[in-house]
Amino acid sequence: MTHRGGVLPSQWIRRALADGTLTALRPVEPTQVQPNSVDLRIGRAGTRVQCSFLPGREGVEGRLRRFGIYPVDAGPDGVVLERNAVYLFPLLESIKLPAGVRARANPKSSTGRLDIFCRLVTEHGTSFDDIPEGFAGGLYLEVVPRSFPIRVREGDSLAQLRFVVGDPTLDDDETRALMAREPIIVAPDDLRLGRTGLRIDNGVFMSVNLSAEGTVGYRAKRNTGAIDLRGRHPISHFWERIYHRPSEPLLLEPDEFYILRSNELVRLPPSVCAEMVPFDAGAGEVRTHYAGFFDSGFGYVSGDDNGAAAAAVVLEVRGRDVPFHVDEGNHLFRVILLRNHEAPDDLYGRGLRSHYQGQRLRLSKQFLPDDGEPESQLPLRFR
């Protein structure tokens, strides 16, 4: 079934590559096309800039003449981007949007879990990440590593782009009706007891899990070496583990970066994808998640047996101005369901294998697994 409004699927993206709507300086790899999005790749010639900016009337080149400090070369050996420094890279992809179609970018999952802040910039753009219908031109990515120095190379993908017609957002009544028909977001205890007690108010409220056995989170270490986006690194070199200790409260310190996970599990069927609300002042002195988009099939299918394998949401959390006490079950974020214009011809986890399918608490793919990583839990399966 099709709708007037919705997120466009993978088959539309492939047609866009064929008809010139989406072009690239290097051929787009099949693995870049996801069920509802396409991965974007940085070019070689970046610039260390004095500050973040929107190009406006002056344009990107004009802004770079004013604010550029020095060029950076993301050639074969890569370049290390320093913590809290601002960089701008041209992307290998460019677009020419038809009437009625707009686009929106967000960081990829690995980008957020590495605490890399990135935003899409367009020529003469007056807002980040959103591309209006009718736009034609090149794309740029602002990149700011926050917790770790990062080594990047031309062709590395830090962000993804999705294409939208109309308003794809399900309102609360539509969300309740859909979740009544099948378990899309559910707490494990509710599933076992046949309950659906989630709060729905401009999205589905979800909570933090601090009571799992063993490791319940990670805190980024300070003054580490660089993380190579194409490398594999020991967890202990970059992260401190947070353990479940009922007698000790978890205090999120200002400007520290944490990886936590949700209590609730998610499974997105072919009819919908989802976006996380990036900040809710009512949640307290924290900002949750940079990577806020989930393609259809997340937590829904397993590449091994085609059974449903629900996944937790991994939270990228940064403390703000004051120490903040987090309790088990605190509502820290919301998920908004987005209608697909039509079902994608492939789903996340089926054919498109991913490090994050069926996840509980999981770091980015740049880290080596070890015996202490809490990934031995069997995924909760929906029947």
Mind explaining what this structure looks like?
- The protein is mostly beta strands and 383 residues long.
- It has 2 domains: 160 residues, Deoxyuridine 5'-Triphosphate Nucleotidohydrolase, Chain A (Distorted Sandwich), CATH 2.70.40; 181 residues, Deoxyuridine triphosphatase (dUTPase) (Deoxyuridine 5'-Triphosphate Nucleotidohydrolase, Chain A, Distorted Sandwich), CATH 2.70.40.
- Helix content is 10%, strand content 36%.
- It contains 5 helices and 28 strands.
- Strands 2, 4, 5, 7, 9 and 11 form a 6-stranded antiparallel β-sheet that branches. Strands 14, 16, 18, 20, 22 and 24 form a 6-stranded antiparallel β-sheet that branches. Strands 1, 3, 8, 10 and 13 form a 5-stranded antiparallel β-sheet that branches.
- It is globular and about 55 Å long.
- The C terminus is likely disordered.
Jot down its keywords.
383 residues; Deoxyuridine 5'-Triphosphate Nucleotidohydrolase, Chain A; disordered C terminus
In short:
With 383 residues, the chain is mainly beta.
